[in-house]
Amino acid sequence: MQTSRTDFLDRIRVLLTALVILHHTAIMYGADGGWYLRYKADGIASSLLLTLFCSVNQAFFMGMFFLLAGYFSTRSFESKGARQFLTDRLLRLGVPVLVFGFVLGPLTNALAETPAGETVWSFWWHLMSRVDFNIGPLWFAYALLIFSVAYMALRLLLPRLSWNLSPAVLNHAWVVFFLVTWGIAAFALRLWVPTGQERGLLQIGFFASYILLFFFGCAAAQARLLENIDKKLALPWGWISLLTIPSLFAYAILSGALKGVPFHVNGGWTLPAFAYAMWEPFVACGIMLMLLWRFRVSTQPWAFWKKLAPLCYAAFIVHAPVVVGLGVLSQAWKDYSIAMFILVGCASLIMSFGVAALLIQLPGAKKIL
């Protein structure tokens, strides 16, 4: 199978999209986090497993989306010019935000919260008629639109600013510097806005990594740094990530979290908050580097990746009502948390990508999706 030099990045996007869908399914069945529909986990073991899955995801998957977005933003800006770049961003990011916010977001709310005596459709119409805007997972497209405009403004206002990182940054010392900067920035930002709180429709507490990774991606594009991650760099950081993952949970247990002792990691001048802020980058780095290396050197990638890659964005957009709808339909079995996470998660993946395959066939859809 013939593949382009960046084909492996498309395969990573498929994986990340699948993880987003599974992440929200896990929250629905008892993991910590916010979602439209939530069921209580059937026990502490289920809750911990699902929360561990979501915590590891949260450390890297959205940040990696921003990294890849930045990587391709530079090429798009340079090939299209500022005006066409902005038009393209408004179309591909702005339109989905509006469609989800005014149509699919209210639908997802209606599926989760329709009062007794009303139908989902009548309550959905009620929410839309009162212009009930719900951005949901499309906060990502909204934030990316803001980042894209900021990037374009920097390129226009500071034309002499170099956006070309040298391959020399691909070394362990530079990685440590980047991760420490990430952790300190996250800790400082959460003193202002703890994780779980929103400002302007965004959970700002997570944005230290998103900003750093997006603009790193922009600066890494010219030298094609993401296409030059090798085993020598990735493997040690993969082991560091693996060893780091249980450390935060061990710290929580030793601090008495299982006995009810508060262990608040969301923000503030506390050791748990600092530990969490530093835990995230050291978990995320190895996972991202391993993905970039392993997906690139894969000699015989599954042919189906190529069919799924164009569907990622549309699947991301539509997955919320799919996940919630399946959760409502199967609520009779909601007490089997892990089993339902697996079953509903797999069904949500199939349905989200299936709906996406239909959507991109609509006239003009490919220009947006």
Automatic annotation (TrEMBL):
Signal peptide, first to last residue: none
Q: Which residues form the Acyltransferase domain?
A: 8-359
Q: Give a Pfam family name.
A: Acyl_transf_3
Q: Do you know which InterPro entries this protein is assigned to?
A: Acyl_transf_3_dom, Glucan_succinyl_AcylTrfase
An example molecular function term from Gene Ontology annotations? acyltransferase activity
Q: Which keywords does this chain's UniProt record carry?
A: Acyltransferase, Membrane, Transferase, Transmembrane, Transmembrane helix
Question: Which positions, given as ranges, span the membrane?
Answer: 12-31, 43-69, 90-112, 138-157, 169-189, 201-221, 233-254, 274-296, 308-330, 336-360
**The name this protein goes by in its record:** Acyltransferase
Which lineage?
Bacteria, Pseudomonadati, Pseudomonadota, Betaproteobacteria, Burkholderiales
